[in-house]
TrEMBL record:
Record GO terms (molecular function): phosphoprotein phosphatase activity; phosphorelay sensor kinase activity
PROSITE patterns: HIS_KIN
TM spans (from-to): none
Domain of life of the source: Bacteria
The organism's taxonomic lineage, starting at the top: Bacteria, Pseudomonadati, Bacteroidota, Flavobacteriia, Flavobacteriales
Protein name, per record: histidine kinase
Gene3D superfamilies: 1.10.287.130, Histidine kinase-like ATPase, C-terminal domain (3.30.565.10)
Catalytic class of the enzyme: transferase
GO cellular component: plasma membrane
Amino acid sequence: MSSVLGMAGLSLVFTLIIVIAYSSAISQLFQQRQISQIKTDFINNMTHEFKTPIATINLALDSLKHPKISSDPEKVANYLRMIREENKRMHSQVENVLRISKLEKNDLDIQKENLDLNDVLEDSISHIALILEQRGGSLHRHFGALRTTVLANESHLSNVFVNVLENAIKYTDESEAPVIDIYTENVRDKIVIKVRDQGIGMSKTAQRKVFQKFFREHTGNIHNVKGHGLGLAYAQRIVDDHHGDIYVESEKGQGSTFIINLPLIT
């Protein structure tokens, strides 16, 4: 009897070893698939991050060919400024990857100064103005905040708003003209910024994941998978560094509203 029990015990041990080894192999395969998916998502998202500045530059160059514009020094200077600014933005997007890594390591030294948030918003709007115009869209300002001074890094905070505004354009159906409303208001010792669009909206699942790195929501067309990706992950880290918070309210088919709260200088 003891020998039978011993053999049964050994069989159980060997079975457990086989199960553990099999589970480990499955886990490694799953991790490899995840890494492969992350690489694919990274390429897709970086492509999306470059689309807006490249499109703006192309539109500006096409406009410069028009006789009425090429003969107007003021308009030429304006389009050249746009091209220069978008080149800077592309360089900034390349650095976003390094910034995310440094932020996670708390290794990014963000210098801050007193800024008027209205000026930062206007700068961000100028970056997407040409793309919005090309789509036949409109942007409406509802700047109700009376106190607008914040301690912030101008470049990083401007990038946050540009990312949100770009999403408002990208996530409006291509058959429709984007409509964007920007609201500001003071709530106690904070300034609240709301960027509302009338786009395709997002699911509850997407709202929970939208600030994760490399997240992208399928829009129904597998050849046109749009991604929030690095942009919103970076935005959240920057807003966190400014002791604020960012979140989204949305419904499918009803558009999205991104809400950013930042502390005021008192």
